[in-house]
Queue: 4 jobs
Job 1
Amino acid sequence: MLKRFIARTSFNFATAKRIKGRPLWRSVLYALPLGLLIASLSHAATTTTVDIQSDGRSRQFIAYVPTSYDSATPTPLLFMMHGLLSSAADAARPYGPYRWQDLAEQEGFIVLFPNSYQDDSWDMNSADANFVRDMISWSIENYNIKTTHIFSTGHSMGAFFSYYAATQLRNDTHPIAVFAGHSGGIIAGLWPTIVPSSPPQLRGMLLHSPADSVVPYSWSSDLHNTLLNRGHISELVTLADSLDHNWDRSYNSAQWDFFLAQAPADPAPPPPPPVPSIGPFGIGILAALMTAGAVQRAARQPSPSC
């Protein structure tokens, strides 16, 4: 049967058709270098589990780098903070509820999925804040990060931590420029931390369903109102009742658009250096040089014959 199949096969290199006078096998060989060049210019997306030391502890996160990453181009950075009793692995599942990798491929940004320390719960303390700082430092050391475009979002307890991290890092050299929180907020105006009443300004988007049966909607509305009352920027998005406490992935793009709209503008390029003034003395020297040049040119010209 195998012999009959081979006998019926119309293609083989011995009887290959010719393409524009060239055997097909030779055309294939000529095309290989171009294909290899194109393949070398594209980068496959990478998902890497990273272990670092932070505050004397072993901490872990997952880094997703999109296909479009170019080391010559500054790239935005997004943190996705997992919820209570969850993990970085849950938040980073390609077919899970969050799927930030899909938008990262479309928009060209790097996503970090941090792991809380040991008990699947964010501690909201200096160790957690320093962990975020260390992840930012790691990202800057390993990738070309657009440091004015460092963002954070999170779900449930991760939403509380997203707000907490933005508050704790707001005076840093590389702060979280804009944060978002899905189904989080603030409890009694105190936890995880009070809203600061002084600059620099916080910029945040809060998303919450009024029918949330786990975290009351009022906790997000309280944080929203307090942010506005204390001179910060906040947008409150009221989600459908049917969502309950679940993540609404259709708002990933809305979060990203908010991040970009609220991020600091790129610094203006430096003005061109001023044209130096030569002054009267310089003008006199320039005139003398021009006169001397004219005299030399006139001397080199042959005298007209009679």
Note: The chain has one domain: 46-262.
Job 2
Amino acid sequence: MSAHAIRTESGIGNEPPLPAPRPSSAIFDIPIDLAPPAELLRTISSWAGQQRTRRVMYVNAHVVNQSRVTPGLVTALRGADLVYCDGYGVRLAARVLNMPVPHRMTGADWIWGLATLCERSRQPIYLLGSEPPIAREAAYRLQKLYPRLDVVGAHHGFFDLDSAHNDRVIEDIKAHAPGIVLVGMGTPKQELWVDRYAAELDGAVVWTVGALFDYVSGHTPRAPRWLADNGLEWIFRLAIDPSRMWRRYLIGNPIFLSRVAGEAHRVAGEAHRVARDAPRIWGEGHVAGNGHWPAGAPHPLPAAAPQTPAPARLLPLARRPLVRVRAIAER
């Protein structure tokens, strides 16, 4: 897993690739976009008018946990055109693993900005997911708050993939021709649905949104700002819905932290192995600092390569992730 990746927007079919690369952090092999929320919203809303299928997904601790046990989920996430951070756990993991830290963008905050952008650009949206009445109630509230926003349809998410009901839903979406389809079915169903069926929706932007419609409709209250801004919104969600959320947070959060610690240990182990093998690979004379290679030994690096002994550079990096995990665990 690389510490930093450049995510390139590739072409689909015979379409040429787009030139602009997107900087990202590859956390647990999932490239997570590093752009700030305002830029992400502008990018996604601009895609809606291009008649080109786009997949947008988010990652938080729960999604990471599910990706380690659900076949196809990592593939779906890695195949998305844009993946953003929706949780402080992912930001913590980036810090521990010495990676660029992505911004956090959560649906209950960005939906109002997206509604404004779609209202101005006259891009129609479709809501798919949640329980039967909730998606329609969310659509009603959005249209009440944004009178010129075109919410062309809403449908619940209680149907099986590859079912006749699913086929009818796809036909309904195509008949309404939305520019953006918001899919709130919960992980992993929503990601697998988007990965499998987005290409059938005639060039729409198809975006996983989790429990967004519960918030927009007013069925689920938001956590106080001071909790949300300090990474503690999960405590509020657990308090208001313990029967549904206890497993995700009381079991899932420790599992996620253990995975972060394990990944940090793996990265540290790789750095130690590189440092240990450097004298053999680079030559004992060079590492000892005498400024020349052993007689007859091939020079493994270009002449301009840095001359700092490898262990001196790598050992501090190897220790740093484990030190951070211990510091977090002791708080």
Note: The radius of gyration is 23 Å.
Job 3
Amino acid sequence: MLQNEVEVKTEKKQEQKNKCIKDIFSDYETKSNIKNAEIKELNLIKKKSILEITIKSDEYIEIKEIWYFEKFLIERFKFTNINIKIEYQENTRKKSIETEWKNIICYMAHKYPLAKPLLLMKSDIKIIENEILVKMHIKGADFLRAKKTDKELERVLKNLYGIEYKVELEEDIEEKEILEYDKHVKDLEEKAIENIIHNHKEENYSNINSKNANTNNIGTPNNQENKETNIESFNDPDYKMPDNLEGYIEEHQSYIPEETNQDDIYQEDLSNKETIEQNYIMGKPTKAKEKKEKIKDITANDGRITLEGRIIAQEVRETKTGKRNANI
């Protein structure tokens, strides 16, 4: 009886040992030799939804084929990430890291885009025993170290080649390359500024035209001519406030003369309510009790004040905490 149990367990172990990727994931269609690799271990981290797979192969597996298989598993089973470790049998001919360097960088770019590994595309490597010196021909070594890209690269190399390497990032830039890089960055900045100014001008002109169109559509007598208001561009460096203050909120007296009846003032305000509201583009009359101040007269000791004028631009942004900030 005991001998039969041992034989059954041995057969089960033999079956598990011989299971390949094509046997377990039969719906994965590929012509690559990765389908013949034996699955040695499967480990699922439920909290992070990460699947770790250890495979064994007697043939070298192209790095791009590893990524295709990982992509299939992510789309098929909705994992957040897949980590594949490869164990090659002895005497298996493998491509060197120098030969596969760009493919390794592309593999990392797919898996860890936030680490910005594509900055390493313009780089050369030198391997001394278990140390890899990466000489970058562009700036960014400190940035990649802050992103821990070098540590991710060490882990990827261990999974692909089964060897622990120490990665050192170093900038090796000639003076000519520095000048070209600085010129490229400056051109990008100038182009970005031009695009922002151009888009802002177009937005302002469209807003002004829409306001003018709305003003012209208001019903007026046929014999009354519409007044044209010359409004200068907000982006003009010589911009000044228009001389015509039509549309601005008129100041009203905040006190009641002694000889005037309070009830008469109340009735007059009700009768003129519609006329006052038409002068506003947006909002309603303020009920603030503070004295209205001019911006140029504001000091640090004023405390709470009231400003009155026309809103020419506004922007609302939501912060990471969910609050909203309004810039007027």
Note: Residues 6-11, 220-260, 265-281 have pLDDT under 50 and may be disordered.
Job 4
Amino acid sequence: MFKRSLPPWLPSRRDDRSLRAIRLPLLALAIPALVGTATLLFGTHGARAEGGEADTAEQAERCAIRLAIALQGKSADSTLLASGDPQTEVDALIASPEFAERYARFINAEFNGGPADAREDPVYYLAKHVLSKNKPWSELFVGAYAVTATAPGVAPPAMEVKADANGLGYFRSAAWMKRYAGNEDQGYMLSGAFRILSNTTGLELDASVGNPGDDRSATGRKGSACKGCHFDAWYALDKFARLLPKKKGQGDTLAFLPPTDGPQKLLGTTLATDKDLVTSLVDSDAWRFSQCRSVFKFLYGRRENQCEANVFDACVESLSSKKTLASAVAAVAKDPSFCVK
């Protein structure tokens, strides 16, 4: 269902046939000349075969280098360089600790607004855990885990991942909640609500700075300039925030209280808790689309192009059926196009 329509500048099927009909007579006339030129330039069939083999070996070496750097962040080893088809080693590369480390760092940077202390980075630690254990990628968002900081005297500073029936991926970790508590006067985590939507669906919004003296309370946000993002759109931030814990206090006295506004009508249904909210988002096509967009950014350093629709759809299908991030990355990295671009 993620197939792109053909861009308008591509010829239709009928136009394409007519273009081929025009080209064929010209090509037929050119073939004898091309054959003669090829004979003069390359000599015997054996010489051409040697050149072809050299080109194939060089292409395989370039492919090995690209895969090693993209998936592990390091140079290809001698075994991968010697492989005639490096893409057959993609699964092994993805199963390595280097890949888990590299992707965990990447997705942590994608999901957060900037660097943080090593004891305040639950996304990185949980992502690395999920990747290392090859667990379903959804567990990063809805898994029953607690991600907590190691004791202050323990070196190096880090966070620990433990099973916790009350966990909700990294969204209930104290470090994440404090980071995105926001400054709303009634304690609603508007910043946290946006981060949940952004991390699961790729939602992008430009924050409105406002003017001095503007009413920034819930009443003010219902005004014409703000109500679209805060109350009317599918991503109505105020309504989403009403399912999250409410903050109380600031700094060292910051605490979180259970939400008190009751169920909210969102995403075409009635949601009662933050777990209902995140689970609905992760069960959506938007989540799979967003995660595969991240895969493309990880491998290519950019979003997918329209001409890569088939590869992108393969990524979405792998994530849907096999559940793991490894399968989604492999669907893109194993495609022949990855090594010829």
Note: The chain has four domains: 21-90, 95-179, 184-206+215-268, 285-339.
